[in-house]
């Protein structure tokens, strides 16, 4: 069975979930989620990660409703679209309506910064921006726990770097249950993970497999560990995250790889360290921020400044 972690709310989150970001929305890939998510639930996945930005909440909700699996056995995360940061209640209610479910287990601020829909201008980091600061937006998230009691079980953040998190914690009344960040052997974020641990914030890793084409699939150290455990690089990487107390939401549309990603192995502390050492010892060997994601200094068309980093 899949291990779970306890959140600071007392709820349990399965260590492995199915990521539902299927690439560029509108390319028909949101439809792919219908079949691959149904397959994932059959394979035993009980943790699903989506977002309003992924434009597939309708499909995700449909698969959950039609699965026949009792709702309380599934842990569902969705995220507030940065274009809706001016209206947290509207954003949340829209997601819940599209999902067609009674509640979400975890609701995240997708990025530190909000984005004004009309002109894509970012805000949220500084007083005097064109919109509320993320501290104010977080206060709206906290209110949801009261005004929408039972409809949202936990709130958290995503893509918060130490700088963002420290600023948020200065005014937060509710400590985020989760910070969902990119994390894999070539981006272990040790300082950030430690900061989250100190504050009782659970970390979930997205792109845990480096989007499937990371050079770490041919990394000598990781391959050696995989061979020692007679398993795959993907399984070692996910086991390494889980051993560090991190849950992971790898995505796969392939039945065999979906199942492979649920079969974890027990790594020794020395093996965990050996994988951490890759980026500690040899900054050249790993790439911070996947080259595939960062294009012309932008991620998904947004500058790092727009992302609040
Ligand atoms: P596929 O859907 O064909 O399995 P990430 O979760 O880091 O974004 O990575 C997702 C990518 O990794 C997908 O392209 C997926 O392809 C691929 N992938 C998923 N599981 C595995 C695995 N066990 N081994 C190799 N590639 C995988």
UniProtKB/TrEMBL annotation:
Residue stretches making up the NADP-dependent oxidoreductase domain: 16-277
This chain belongs to the protein called Related to GCY1 - galactose-induced protein of aldo/keto reductase family
Name the family.
Belongs to the aldo/keto reductase family.
Source organism per entry reads Pseudozyma flocculosa
Keywords, sorted A to Z: NADP, Oxidoreductase
Please indicate which superkingdom the organism of origin belongs to.
Answer: Eukaryota
Q: Name one GO molecular function term.
A: oxidoreductase activity, acting on the CH-OH group of donors, NAD or NADP as acceptor
Where is the organism placed in the taxonomic lineage, from the top? Eukaryota, Fungi, Dikarya, Basidiomycota, Ustilaginomycotina
């Amino acid at each position: 069975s899949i291990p779970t972690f306890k959140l600071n709310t007392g709820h349990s989150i399965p260590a492995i979930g199915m990521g539902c970001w299927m690439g560029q929305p509108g390319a028909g890939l949101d439809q792919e989620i219908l079949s691959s998510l149904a397959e994932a639930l059959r394979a035993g996945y009980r943790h699903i990660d989506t977002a309003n930005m992924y434009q597939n909440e309708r499909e995700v909700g449909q698969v959950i409703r039609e699965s026949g699996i009792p709702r309380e056995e599934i842990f569902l995360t969705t995220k507030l679209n940065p274009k809706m940061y001016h209206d947290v209640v509207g954003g949340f209610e829209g997601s819940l309506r599209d999902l067609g479910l009674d509640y979400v287990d975890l609701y995240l601020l997708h990025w530190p910064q909000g984005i004004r829909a009309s002109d894509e201008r970012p805000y949220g980091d500084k007083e005097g921006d064109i919109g509320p600061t993320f501290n104010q937006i977080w206060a709206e998230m906290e209110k949801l726990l009261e005004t929408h009691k039972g409809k949202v079980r936990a709130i958290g953040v995503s893509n918060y770097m130490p700088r963002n998190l420290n600023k948020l914690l200065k005014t937060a009344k509710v400590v985020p249950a989760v910070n969902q960040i990119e994390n894999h052997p070539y981006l272990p974020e040790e300082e950030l993970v430690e900061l989250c641990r100190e504050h009782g914030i659970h970390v979930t890793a997205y792109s845990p497999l480096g989007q499937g084409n990371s050079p770490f699939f041919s990394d000598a150290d990781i391959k050696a560990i995989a061979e020692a455990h007679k398993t795959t690089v993907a399984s070692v990487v996910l086991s390494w995250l889980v051993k560090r107390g991190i849950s992971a939401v790898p995505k796969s549309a392939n039945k065999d790889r979906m199942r492979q990603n649920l079969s974890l192995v027990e790594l020794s502390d020395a093996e965990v360290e050996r994988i951490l050492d890759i980026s500690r010892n040899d900054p050249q060997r790993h790439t911070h921020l996947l080259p595939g994601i960062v294009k012309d200094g932008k991620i998904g068309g947004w500058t790092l400044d727009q992302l609040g980093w």
